[in-house]
Specification:
heterodimer; A: mainly alpha; 6 helices; 73% helix; B: mainly alpha; globular
């Protein structure tokens, strides 16, 4: 039976958080002409490092900004998440799939999900439909396996 | 540009943390349709896309950004097998763990070993694609030079 978990639903912080994420993507695109896609940014920096090229510094600054936001956040409260729901092997395999998949597919939830949909890119619509479908199928399969 | 990227990273990280998306159980609450469903992630995505919509539409019609940078958005390419396969793999990793690249970076300062393992595997996955791509490129180059 499909039920909505109203106790875990947090519309206001989610909406404000979403607006901030969208504003970050907007500022980077209008101001800097760049897509705020985390996998593209991290992957691009990694590609530079592997090829022993000079780093494009804005990418590192963006990553630094995310980590710095979390460091500042942790001065006030704890970072949401306990990260204990699954095993080491799953964290390792899942991380590898997320890294390899986002590079092969040229984007993740921020690049395709936020920027790509806002640009009305057909490729991003296809990517979001695909990864949401396989993510839901995987999460449901894991649920059935455990319960 | 560097300062703008740092600012955008801060804003993005704050948005992820405020929306609670660094918490994989909240993401899985959205993906796992077999359990009680948490619609919060949908609110985050919709608000982010709506906020970014007009700025990204304006940005992709410009050749030079407000700060004088070249607008370097991905060119329109067809929807190909690589995009769909990559996105499918990404989705499986996302559905297994409930983490994707942006929230994973924002969760690093929580110092949970699971997050660091996830990010290390994510970088390994990205590096695998990078090295595979380079091998394919070299093989093609070798083919061209073979009489």
């Amino acid at each position: 039976m499909f039920t909505i978990d109203w106790s875990a639903f947090t519309p206001v912080p989610s909406a404000v958080g979403g607006v901030l994420i969208g504003a970050a993507a907007a500022a980077l695109a209008l101001g800097g002409g760049k897509i705020a896609g985390v996998s593209g940014i991290v992957g691009g920096a990694l590609a530079d490092a592997l090829a022993a090229r000079a780093q494009t510094t804005w990418r590192l600054q963006f990553v630094l900004g995310i980590v710095l936001a979390a460091v500042l956040w942790s001065l006030w409260g704890s970072i949401p998440g306990t990260f204990t729901h699954t095993s080491w092997l799953v964290w390792a395999i899942g991380g590898w799939l997320v890294g390899a998949g986002s590079r092969l597919g040229s984007g993740c939830a921020s690049g395709h999900g936020v920027c790509g949909l806002a640009r009305l890119s057909p490729r991003s619509f296809a990517a979001v439909a695909t990864f949401t479908a396989t993510a839901i199928a995987t999460a449901v399969a894991v649920h059935r396996l455990l319960h | 540009m560097d300062l703008l990227a740092l600012f955008c990273g801060l804003l993005f990280g704050l948005g992820v943390l405020l929306s609670g998306m660094s918490d994989p159980t909240r993401v899985l609450g959205f993906l796992d349709l077999a359990g009680p469903w948490n619609p919060s992630l949908l609110v985050v995505l919709v608000c982010a896309v709506l906020t970014a919509f007009i700025p990204l539409q304006l940005a992709q019609r410009r050749r030079v950004s407000l700060l004088g940078e070249a607008v370097a958005f991905p060119q329109t390419r067809p929807i190909n097998r690589r995009l769909l396969l990559g996105s499918a793999l990404f989705g499986v990793g996302w559905g297994l763990t409930g983490l994707c690249p942006g929230p994973a970076l924002a969760a690093l300062p929580s110092l949970h070993a699971a997050v660091w393992l996830f990010v290390a595997s994510l970088l390994a996955g990205m590096a695998s694609v990078e090295l595979w791509q380079r091998r394919v490129a070299q093989t093609r180059l070798a083919d061209v030079h073979t009489p």
